[in-house]
Amino acid sequence: MKPRRRRRALPLATLVERAQCVADEVRAELHSVHADVHERWHTRLHHDDDVDVWLISWTTEQGTQLHGHGGSSGAFTVVAGELAEAVWDPVARELGEQERRTGDAVAFGPGYVHDVRNVRAGTAVSVHVYSPPLERMDFFDVDGPRGEEHLVRLAHVWTDDPEIAYPGELRDAS
């Protein structure tokens, strides 16, 4: 994927509003949701120069690698089920755990680093909105002794797909 000229992100409140509006559409069954126990199912519902909108399902124990959104801001809302989110706090230099329940919405700026996973029984569903649209994903790990932890970038991948596999997983699978 070739990088585009960066545009400014839409306001976070607009991203949350868009995520919640699409979540309402999903609840009204205007969009089909599928679940796949072998990999997270996802589909792009909308794309333009300002925003990407994705619908994602998470079966039990599915999750992401710790990642950032390559300079994009975003928002997500839980349509059904519950998701666990680990968020990197650069001031405290640690991961903080949050439980995200049906109806919860999270907005974030371009430096946000997190992982999301379903640790409950059953399938969770979420809507994710990115602005400007995704162009890359950054994958991280946390390293260092307690109290001195820091992020280590594992990979920088040009992509417009928020569900791209962490490149280490691709190597491990071969």
Explain what the structure shows.
- The protein is mainly beta and 174 residues long.
- It has a single domain, classed as Jelly Rolls, CATH 2.60.120.10.
- It has two helices and eleven strands.
- A hairpin with a 4-residue loop joins strand 5 and strand 6.
- The radius of gyration is 16 Å and the shape is globular.
Major sheet: arrangement of strands:
6-5-8-3-10-11
Overall CATH class: Mainly Beta
Backbone structural class: mainly beta
Architecture per CATH nomenclature, i.e. the level-2 architecture:
Sandwich
Domains counted in the coordinates: how many?
Answer: 1
Could you give a short description of this structure?
The protein is mainly beta and 174 residues long. 13% of the residues lie in helices and 43% in strands. The chain is globular and about 50 Å long.
What tags apply to this protein structure?
174 residues; mainly beta; Jelly Rolls; 5-stranded antiparallel β-sheet
Topology of this protein?
Layout: H1 12-27, E1 41-47, E2 52-58, E3 67-68, E4 73-80, E5 82-89, E6 94-101, E7 105-108, E8 113-117, E9 124-131, E10 136-143, E11 150-158, H2 167-173
